[in-house]
UniProtKB/TrEMBL annotation:
One of its GO terms (molecular function) is RNA binding. Gene3D superfamilies: PAS domain, Winged helix-like DNA-binding domain superfamily/Winged helix DNA-binding domain. InterPro entries: ANTAR, PAS, PAS-like_dom_sf, PAS_fold_3, WH-like_DNA-bd_sf. The lineage of its organism: Bacteria, Bacillati, Actinomycetota, Actinomycetes, Mycobacteriales. This is ANTAR domain-containing protein. SUPFAM superfamilies: PYP-like sensor domain (PAS domain). Residues 138-199 form the ANTAR domain. Residues 37-83 form the PAS domain.
């Protein structure tokens, strides 16, 4: 893997990004009720290119898994009415009938005058390559002279961000690492720099009260699971 400063980044080959890890961008313009797909997103849905398909809200829903369709329909309706930012995990069905789990992350597309023009974002097809070596990411060292303390610090940052992605998007460790690496490559930003920037904005993430309550419950009851496991293996 080549670092963005032109210096090779040594990465454990077991943790290389899954080559089947697919992604694609989309844009939605509220005034025209118009969707646009990148070529990658069209191919993810089974089409040859963005020019070979005209994406519409109805087409989007036809590609959703039946068990996810109602939930996604509500989401699309909110996007069309208010241009809200959102994230979603659901399954799509491509033109060949293959079921593909995806993560969709979107933000507000603003007009130069400040009003909400629509929504833009990207799909990421969840990888099923499995987690190697417990899923721990080996952080690229960047330059040969980087000292051990710096490597450990960078690794810790990436691991914390990876953990946040695993929690929020319900990914395994390898999928979370793949997502970070893809964003690093797609945005031409070094992996550690991107992870540090994401971590610095954790305070900006609005955690719904229901999610906090669920995590509270886990934190307060986790010891019971530890005791139960000990008794079962005694």
């Amino acid at each position: 893997m080549q670092g963005h400063d032109g210096v090779a980044d040594p990465v454990d080959p077991r943790l290389a990004v899954d080559q089947t890890f697919q992604f694609g961008r989309f844009w939605y313009y509220r005034d025209d009720d118009r969707w646009e797909w990148s070529d990658q997103l069209a191919r993810l849905h089974g089409y040859e290119s963005a020019e070979s398909v005209v994406p519409t809200s109805d087409l989007l829903l036809r590609h959703k898994h039946p068990d996810d369709k109602d939930r996604v329909a509500d989401l699309i309706d909110r996007v069309r009415r208010a241009g809200e930012p959102f994230s979603s995990q659901h399954r799509i069905i491509d033109t060949r009938g293959a079921v593909i789990p995806v993560i969709v992350i979107a933000d507000v597309l603003q007009h130069p005058d400040g009003r909400r023009q629509g929504t833009f974002g990207f799909y990421v097809a969840a990888s099923h390559s499995g987690t190697a070596a417990g899923g721990s990411a080996v952080v690229p060292s960047g330059r040969a002279h980087m000292d051990i303390d710096e490597m450990v610090r960078r690794r810790s940052t990436i691991e914390r961000v990876k953990g946040a992605l695993m929690l929020v998007y319900r990914l395994d460790a390898q999928q979370a690492f793949d997502l970070l690496v893809w964003r690093s490559q797609e945005s031409n930003t070094k992996l550690y720099s991107l992870a540090a920037a994401i971590e610095s904005r954790f305070v900006d993430v609005d955690m719904p009260s229901r999610a906090r309550t669920s995590l509270d419950r886990v934190v307060l009851s986790a010891h019971e699971h530890v005791r139960r496991d000990r008794s079962e293996h005694a």
